[in-house]
Amino acid sequence: MKTIVKSPEEDAYDSPLSSLPDEIILQIINKLIDLKTLCFCSLVSRRFSSIVLQVDSVSFTAPLLNSPTSDKITSGDVDGDGFPTKLFRFLINGVVFKPLYLLRRMIVAPSKPLPPIISSFYGQSFRSAVTFLSKFKGVKSLHIELPCSSHRGIDNRCLFKWKVKFGNRIESFFFLSPNSISDSDEFHVNGNGDEQDMDLSNDLFRQKVHIAFQCLKDVILRHRMLLYIIKDLPMLEEASITDSGRRGRLSLSGEKLAEVKKGWVSSAMETLKSEMNRIEVPASVSQCHIPVLDMPVSGYVMKGVTLVVMEMNGLHDEKDSLMSSEDGGSEDKEEAAYTEAVMEILEKHKDRMKVLL
User: Fold this and answer.
1) Where would one find the signal peptide in this protein (predicted)?
2) DSSP result, 74-116
3) From CA 81, how far away is CA 176, in angstroms rounded?
4) Alpha carbon of 208 to those of 211, 253, 298, 338: distances in Å?
5) Contact 273, 244 (CB under 8 A)
6) Are 255 and 310 in contact (CB under 8 A)?
């Protein structure tokens, strides 16, 4: 008797999932917001490919160039959102991993070239992710997590966070670094090893200013990355780029996102290339050091606090810039404490700000 060999796509359609309406499958796939997982799902069949591209939320972690973890598959904690574990395992085992050999038969479109400032830090994996991401024309929410940047001379144990005000261009950058953080009862919350030294030595001061400038370089890269990606996603309502160390975040949503996209999309190609390759340096840099900073709202106490403020386009009101620095997303308790610390300094200790540049 002749054996009938089914094609991989026919085999996929024999799955019990093939009998489900597109709407139900989309509800399931909408739980799998990780870009790599969505990519594997899209390889199951033409039907699945068209459904996958209708998801409204996408998240992915971008590896650094030559990162040894660039092929690691990650996904969100779907169980925390109430997604049934058995159904999730069934979907992954029966639909995702089974047809992986179809990858050999796929005709993969060439990755889009990235601006040099981005491609110099992120390799082929990131280019492929951006190319695939650009197909999600209906996506409304995008979250990108980058690995913590490793800069020479920076101790990763050092406490610091940054915030940035931006539109089509970066306007203001804030860098805050305390030696230690404790609550109102002097219970130690966090420290970098120098918590007993509330005074700022010259070496420590130079180190913190150096870190601030390195962070500004990271912000410039992430800002251009964000602009480059959002221009291809017409339905996008919110977008953010952060890092695994939660040092800072660039986020846009609502009217601010629409305004930035409008200015970016309407620009001529030569203008876009010029903007991507433009050299950005701060027009002014100021800093101050506060030995002990009490924060009445959170109840925290910071010791040995250094604040560095950089204005990219001349002098602005730092407090107003900080208030409008975030558009979209929400702060956790730690982030809120850092924001409160900057506000306290700008309101009560502005006379201590010294101009460096």
Assistant:
1) none
2) ----GGGGT--HHHHHHHIIIIIIGGGGGGGG--PPPPPPPPH
3) 34
4) 5, 31, 24, 16
5) no
6) no
Tell me the CA distances in angstroms from 32 to 3, 167, 294, one per residue in order.
37, 30, 43
Integer Cα distance of 152 and 156 in angstroms = 10
- 155: three-class secondary structure by DSSP: coil
Token digits for 188?
């130690």
Confidence band for 236, pLDDT divided at 50, 70 and 90: very high
List of residues 6+ apart from 11 with CB closer than 8 A:
99
Count CB atoms within 10 A of the CB of residue 228.
Answer: 19
Q: Which amino acid is at 155?
A: D
What does the alpha-carbon distance between residue 133 and residue 149 come to, in Å, rounded to a whole number? Answer: 23
Task: Supply 280's token pair.
Answer: 């950005």
How far is Cα 251 from Cα 234, in angstroms, rounded to an integer?
17
Model pLDDT for residues 122-178, shown as the tens digit of each residue: 777 788 888 899 999 999 999 999 887 766 656 667 899 999 999 989 999 999 999
